[in-house]
Amino acid sequence: MEKPSQSSEDAASAATDRIKDSAQQIWLAGLGAFAKMQQEGSKAFEALVKDGVGVQKRTQQAAEETLAQAQARMTGFASEFSNRAAGGWGKLENIFEDRVARALEKLGMPSALEVAALQARVEALEAELRRQGGAAKPARAAPRKTATRKSADTASKPSQRHKSAGG
Q: What is the pTM of this model?
């Protein structure tokens, strides 16, 4: 076997040195890129955080506005519902009062206006008697019964007037 020549060894050594130098440069370029990315990465991260804070504030503001609008609408609905319910109860109350008044009228009970008119007439007659000299003392006033008691007394006792009237 023949020994390789000196020049071929030098050429191989020079190629190996170039490869080593090239690999060293590639390695150093990678380290430089890594260092640069660390610096740029922290800046990019900070920029992303700042952008995220801005987006969060805008989102919260939009959500608060939407919530305020929803609350206003619900308040309006509740108010409208309350008004409708109160109107319905008022109508129901009027119907009930009318029916009770008609039932009491059928039972022969005087209305509140009729009782008030009778009281006024009695007071006027008493005043007239006193003015004429008071010779005749006014009769002692009988204890007054309220309309509720009269209607309860009447409801518990059958009416003779209605039985004889064919009822």
A: 0.32
